[in-house]
Amino acid sequence: MRFDLVDLSLFRHVVEAGSITHGAARANLALAAASARVRGMEETLGAALLTRSRQGVALTPAGRTLVAHARAVLDRVERMQGELAAYAGGTVGQIRLLSNTNALTEFLPEVLSAYLASHPGVSVDIEERTSDEIVGLVAEGTADLGIVAGTVDTGSLQTYPFRQDRFVVVVASGHALDGRGEVGFAEVLEHDIVGLDRASALTRFLADKAARIDGRTMRLRVQLRSFDAVCRLVECGVGVGIVPETTARRAIRSMGIGLVPLTDPWALRDLTLCLRALDALPAFARDFVAQLRAPAGFDRQIPNGGLPSGARLG
């Protein structure tokens, strides 16, 4: 079997993207070339690696074995490249990071700015997922690192504390909930809600929590792309919003809104960093872990300028 690194990288991309078309795009290959490479791998092996359908591709037993080895080989190659590049005057590499909504919008911009400034040859590919999804994807090697809610079972993954925050309800001045000392999520569901778009990890998380309360749903009036936009629409009286307390306290300084704590246990968020093995990461990725684990500096104002240069949302 003569699988080269391009073959292995392409196959990993196909599996993670769920189709040969999208995998080829990730690997910067033409679809015809990617399809030919996958067929060539199957012919060389003498067994099917993928089952194909209109919905995409699924792994065969042989494919599952190959992708596990491909990830291990590519991880080692990336680690070698990163460590050897340091001798050439600069580290070059990529970190694949999965994050839940809270960490992505409130805490990562500050950390990323400091890290990318000191590692100009490194890029960070970030994808937003729910905490449960992140644990599974990190465990199988799809991502290098994940940031999840502390309540999630991380299994055998190595974990480190990251940050702590809580979700609160923001309401317009004079709203029926304005001035309340606290409120339960079940009562919030009686009001129109301004939320993030339906594909966001937080909206899917809240929809699941609502469904667990006698099958209820959220009355989403508007779906937006940022917590700050949610607060602005709440100020205009469109509905109530559920945002991190850090966002709410920042927004209160310039908007006519109030903050009401949620009584539900899940509202308190201990955010946790998870990974397979710290020692297996390349040096530049271990530096990033150290940056993530550094003291948070909660007395500083959290920047509101989005993700810094060098970070890419997947």
Written account of the structure:
With 314 residues, this protein is an alpha/beta fold. It is 41% helix and 23% strand. The chain has helices at residues 5-17, 20-26, 31-45, 61-85, 101-106, 108-118, 131-139, 185-188, 201-211, 227-235, 245-252, 283-293; strands at 50-53, 56-59, 93-99, 122-128, 145-149, 158-172, 193-196, 220-224, 240-244, 257-261, 268-275, 311-313. The strands form two sheets. Strands 3, 4, 5, 6, 7, 8, 9, 10, 11 and 12 form a ten-stranded mixed beta sheet that branches. It has a two-stranded antiparallel sheet with strand order 1-2. Helix 1 crosses helix 2 (20-26), helix 1 packs across helix 4 (61-85) and helix 2 crosses helix 3 (31-45). The longest helix is centred in the N-terminal third of the chain and has 25 residues, at 61-85. The radius of gyration is 22 Å and the shape is globular. The two termini are 32 Å apart. Residues 297-307 have low confidence and may be disordered.
Topology at a glance:
Blueprint: H1 5-17, H2 20-26, H3 31-45, E1 50-53, E2 56-59, H4 61-85, E3 93-99, H5 101-106, H6 108-118, E4 122-128, H7 131-139, E5 145-149, E6 158-172, H8 185-188, E7 193-196, H9 201-211, E8 220-224, H10 227-235, E9 240-244, H11 245-252, E10 257-261, E11 268-275, H12 283-293, E12 311-313
Parallel strand pairs: 3-4, 3-5, 4-12, 7-8, 7-9
Antiparallel strand pairs: 1-2, 5-11, 6-9, 6-10, 6-11
Helix pairs in contact: 1-2, 1-4, 2-3, 6-12
